[in-house]
Amino acid sequence: MAEFAIIGGSGFGQIKELEITAQKTVQTPFGEPSAPLAFGRFGGKEIIFLPRHGEGHTIPPHQINYRANIWALKESGVKKIVGMGAVGGIRRDMAPGCMAIPHQIIDYTWGREHTFFDRQQGRVVHIDFTDPYCEALRASLIEAGQRAGVELISDGTYGATQGPRLESAMEINRMERDGCDLVGMTGMPEVALARELELSYAACAVVANWAAGRGDGPITWDEIEASLDEGMEKARQLLLAVI
Ligand code: HPA
Asked: Residue 237 belongs to what domain range?
């Protein structure tokens, strides 16, 4: 049985070394996940892969069924999830092409189904979220990166925005004052839902662009896709090393 799952984000809709052995469409009490779960072998191990934005990258960040995705992975028996995602860089060393393993998160999203513990569950549960990411899994990723010679930044506060639009320059200034180093649209509620179901979760954030107001002029999706190719290659090597 697979122990690891990878949730792929923008620029990471498939993994070239993944030999898919089965695809399973699953239903959950919260609806259908973004795509059928892809079961396969990667780096000699069984894993499950799920493209967060759907098979043809059609689901925008605010319409992803995060609950169905995490529930489906829990039901399939995985214990550890690495969530891949494209981000904008705010901190000076978070330049396009870099990869970071965030250690903290600030949630600016709204209106998303963000918990399994609503009234239907019949009890009130408040999970601890002091350290939102699994420290053991973060340490494995960082150690695997060092072992495989894959350059990465071993910390970072991820600011999760609602999207799908990018931010204004002043919103990024405010986020920087709050302590954010990176900005992305899918970090929440994914990591909190994984914690609610007691799954180990770490994120691998690939910097695609300078955040709004930090680079020269407007941000284009073409620019984002171009630097994602470089960053995602690093991410693939890191995943091979950790798995
Ligand atoms: N902002 C939010 N999400 C992103 C960005 C950004 O600049 N780049 C890639 N995903």
From this structure: 4-242
